[in-house]
Specification:
This protein is an alpha/beta fold. Helices cover 52% and strands 15% of the residues. The chain contains twelve helices and twelve strands. InterPro entries: NAD(P)-bd_dom_sf (IPR036291), Sc_DH/Rdtase_CS (IPR020904), SDR_fam (IPR002347).
Amino acid sequence: MRVLPAAPSIEGLTAVVTGGSRGLGLLMARQLLRRDCDVVLLARDAAELDRAVAKLGRPGGGAVRGVVCDVRDGPAVQQRLAEIARDNGRLDIVIANAGIIQVGPAEALGVEGFRDALDSIFHGALNTAFAALPHLRRSPAGGRLALVGSVGGLLAVPHLLPYSCAKSAVAALAEGLHAEEAAYGVTVTGVHPGLMRTGSHLHARFGGDRRREYAWFQALAGAPVLSMNAERAAERIVSAVQRRRPRIVLTPVAKLGVVAHGVAPVLTTRLVSAVGRVLPRDGGPGTAEGYRVEAEEQPPARRFRRVLGVLNERAAGRFNQRG
């Protein structure tokens, strides 16, 4: 068995996590705190940030605080990161994690759905990267930037097309910046997780036949074989950033899918097309967040879905997905 060399210490470094108030972002912040970083969470919702800080706060080790910021607003991101670098005297690690998930047929989500995904996911990552890089280049420890993409950005997934398109752009951005920033001593890590049990189904937006779209997404996102324990995923991501790895793909299923698509793209496209044929086709216009779709269901169906996705439901409660 190959033994990895000890990871370089990141104790005392200043880290920022966008989308850090819940789910994967919250868990990555926890991992950074365990490594004695000072952590700043960026998110849009002040109340959610307060709850996240309360969940993460602990005596000793690194400090944690929350800052309200919408990553879609480029000037605001620049200002917030400049303030953090000034207040902490440095900025060493930035993880761009903020984004949205939309589930449904492309036609139901519409052109506006694609614009929303690109604005939140890609432009959010782009704004964060460009605001962070001048500070990361000045980091005495050598800056680290991580852009959270998805296996959906490496292999397009039906009924997640806006998400896949935006994450694909993030993957290209991470790869290109890794090459360009090497000259400045900054490493850029492209992070591509598969399904994780984060409870994200509650904040995903569902279009088309919302109840059926919610049902399949909630079930698969909580399936033990297909999805990954989110705490384990966060630990591996932060370790990859700490070790300055250029790319990490998470979950065995995701790795298999990416390799298969690279070796036999026609075959994998046909297999994915077969999956697309069994997904819901009908439904009305507009989208609704998962917790609203869940609330519209009758109690027996709601209880059945929670039992089916029990691991994801537990994750939602633990990782600040339920207000």
